[in-house]
Specification:
alpha+beta, about 80 residues
């Protein structure tokens, strides 16, 4: 299992994950910076954690919810 460190933090917009990191920034974001992205329209900020089971059945993440977002679905299970 890989371990996650704060320096590894990269934040994404859950509703536009394919666009890359928030603001194209390849570094951790401060809470103040994430709040600014929320003010500009980011509804759900997503942080993927490197800590992962070897079997790969669980992808841990942190979500910051700023407002409602469009419904999403996928195959599989979630643990909240």
């Amino acid at each position: 299992m890989a371990s996650h460190h704060g320096a590894d933090d990269r934040w994404y917009d859950l509703t536009d994950f394919g666009a890359g990191t928030l603001g194209g920034l390849d570094r951790p974001l401060t809470p103040k910076e994430r709040n600014r992205f929320a003010e500009r329209g980011t509804a759900v900020a997503l942080l993927l954690l490197k800590s992962r089971l070897e079997s790969g059945h669980l992808l841990p993440a942190v979500l910051e919810l700023y407002r409602g977002s469009p419904p999403r679905s996928h195959d599989g299970e979630e643990f909240v």
